[in-house]
Amino acid sequence: MAPVSRHHGDGSLWNAPDPPDPDRLFEQHSVEELTAIHRSLRQQMEGKREELRTMVGERYRDLIEAADTINTMKTGARHTIQTIQDLMVKSKAMSHTASLSTDRSAVNPQNVPYLTLAAEIKCLMMCPEKIWTQVDQRDYLQASQLYLFARHTHTGLTMDQGGHFSAQHVANVFPVVGRQWASIAHFRDAILQGAKSTLIRTDSTPEACIGAMLSRALIQGFSASDLFEEFLQLRKADFKQYLQEEHQSETAKGLMARSLGLILSTLTVIHQAFRAEEGVTLASQAQSMQKPTLDTFETKLSPVLKYLPPIVSGFKPSLIQPLKPLETDYVQSKLRTWLDEIHELVNPEIKQVMSHISGIGSLISIRRSVYELLLSKDPKCWDQVCRSLLGKELNLWDEFFRSVFRERIEALIASQIAGSVYCVQSTLSGLTDLNSESDLSAFLWSESQVSEIGLLASGPGAKSKDGSVRLTGLELKARGYSPRVLDLCEQFDGMLKRLLQDVKLLIEDQLSKEVEKASPLEMPALFLDKLTNESVKEPFLAQADNEAILLFLEQSVQEHLDGMITHIGEKYLSQDQRGLCVFLARFYQALPEISPNLEKSVLASKTLAPVKEAPFEPIQARKTLKVDPQWGDVKEKLELESCRIFRFWITALMIDLKSALSLALRTNQDPRLLHIFGAWETIEISEQGEESEPVKSTIKVPQAPSIAFICALGEFCHHVYNIAPYSLPTPVQMALSQEPCKVVTSVYTHLVDQERLNQNVALQLLFDLQFMKAAIISTDNKPTQELAEEIIQKLEANHIDPFDLRVFLPYISVNVKKSILKEQGLLSVLIPNDRFTLMASMKSSLPPPSSLSNQENHNLMWTIPPKKEKIPLIPIPKRMKPESQMSSLLSAQDGNMTGHGPRSVSPVLGRRKRDKSPVARAAGSFFEAMSTSWFGSK
């Protein structure tokens, strides 16, 4: 395909403004076209060179002309300067020959009109320079007076003065008059605009503002009320425009300073101008205009000015409307309306700007800057100004910024507390592998480091220098807190600590410079009087909102804490997540102890408020500090939530316990239930035969709880021991003790209500229920006790022969007590507190072991998997003298030998009825052990 060429209207192949790409040209064009393009480019280059030569030539010609003009001006300036110098020399020479103070009467009367006309023109010629000088110095009152004087003089020149000096004649002969007035007339707008700028600027002095007001009153004919209202409107309009243009880039500190400067300057100027009795006021400044304006001219340097007519020389500017005093009600009404309008303008803007402030420290800096700004204005003088203008004192901080400042502080406090709660919730959502929280055995039984033990020696929960509490490994194990619980509590506590530090800085920020504290007894009375009289009044009290802020902090902490508890309870609590339940329960349990800043936050109004010096009290009169009710309510709330979550976990354990126990006690599959039986005890009994001969027989009775029963409870205890049950709250420990009883009774009720059970099975179940009733069921748990008793009665009435029950029951009772003493170490978590006293008395009430029996006691602990070590309780034995031991053994043997009667029970059981009560024997055993072993007596 042939390359496509691009032709233009001028016949050239290339006329693009951009330089052509050689590679693309060779790709798209033929050799002939490239030659034509080359020729076109050379023509364009030649044209550009010609244009450049022409432009350089023209510029060089202009440069030469400018140089010639400068040389001409330089020569003319030198000639003019030389001429002026010659004139000055000649005038000095003439001053020695003629006097300048020639009397007017010596002048030819025919020349007086010409001299008068010349003097007026001379004044008109001098006015622009003087007006410019005053405008440049921002003295607009003097500039307006000169302007009015120039206008008055020009008016006289444009009027018919009689004779040959008609207005038309003056305009024709002296055209300078018209041109000069044209150069003066524009000063009116410049003076008014300058006076307006002075009134708008907040850094203008009251004297300058008063002069600007009078200047506008002279030129525009304003009255006092007009000046007052115009001044307020100018300030308001300027501030509104400032907010519209600069508020996006303005800081809160700058915006507050600008608004305060506006209000302070406005009220001060109004008071000085309209209400003050002393100083430069509007009335006093108006009286200063009674001098002729011509006095500002240097008449001695211009002798012709003496020929001015009296109407010009005696000109005094006057106000069109007199400046009458403003009524008090009128001023107060207008100022209050103006202040309300300014408040409506500045309040939303300050809220918007302060919404970007993210730290309490920045708010402290802003408040301090406002305080210093208000302090620079003497508070006493400011109070006088406010009482004069408003009829009351006006605290600008309280009226304009206090509410916004407090709202922002409360918003920051609430956001930081919400952030702390959010961090806790996000940490919970990110936690994984929480199953380890329900099994702390590895952590509880691991050895602690030596450094941690050394720290523990300094005191449990010792506080560091910054007041935080760091628990050591041993302390964590003693309380059952895992390292994860410690980290989460410390994370929450750290965020609260930073918040409290910021709030403390805010509360303790002393804005006023206080005198060093000293005892009044050490100060002379005269010095105290002087200090009292000359003390500087504070613009506002920085501590006014401290109590409200601290109360808000307390309320916000409690509200967000309640919200956190509700959110966690709705989102995370589940019986399937047992590790999470234990973790959350431990978190609520540990939070009051590991997070001391939580207590400080809840009691912020008491812990962060400045401490007042309490009167001296003797040590005997000091009372023990009690827990604050407010903090007590929070602790109780956390403890209740912890107990509630623990009950979720306990409910899950109860489900497992019921499932395991029901599965192990299924009688429909194995009627003999050999898998739940342990080794029974073989007991030899004797009874009287038909011929009064003793007949001996052996019976077997249960000597331990069933394997299913003890395995299910052991598995339950294993899970409980893994979370350090000794550190659980008392209600949780009671629930752990009594909830299994309900499960066991419900399972056994289902078994008993089925078809008739084998008597051996019934005896084993009876043994389990007797064991549970004597060791596990609390005396306060009346419903479970009654249900267990009801099941026992059903077993005895429906499934066991009454004659056999009468024989077996005493031996079962003894074996129950023995089993309790054996299993109390394993099942100690299930034993309520009110049962330990009875257990202590059980050993003393048991009969001594019989030497005739070759049956060894079977220990059934091997049936339970060795999942965890457990330190059993150490019983306190009753120490007996050898004589008493021998006599007891002999009496027992005698009783066995002499026992007779039909189906007589063991003599030991009969003797047990004559002994003291179990509680009395337990108490006696305890006190005897205390007296003999602990205190060293024999």
TrEMBL record:
Annotated spans, Disordered: 1-24, 891-917
Keyword Ligase appears in the UniProt entry: no
Superkingdom of this protein's organism: Eukaryota
Major localization listed first in the record, in broad terms: Golgi
A biological-process GO annotation: intra-Golgi vesicle-mediated transport
InterPro entries per record: COG1 (IPR033370)
Pfam families linked: VPS51_Exo84_N
Cell location: Golgi apparatus membrane
PANTHER family: CONSERVED OLIGOMERIC GOLGI COMPLEX SUBUNIT 1
Family to which this protein belongs: Belongs to the COG1 family.
The protein's name in its UniProt record: Conserved oligomeric Golgi complex subunit 1
Originating organism: Tigriopus californicus
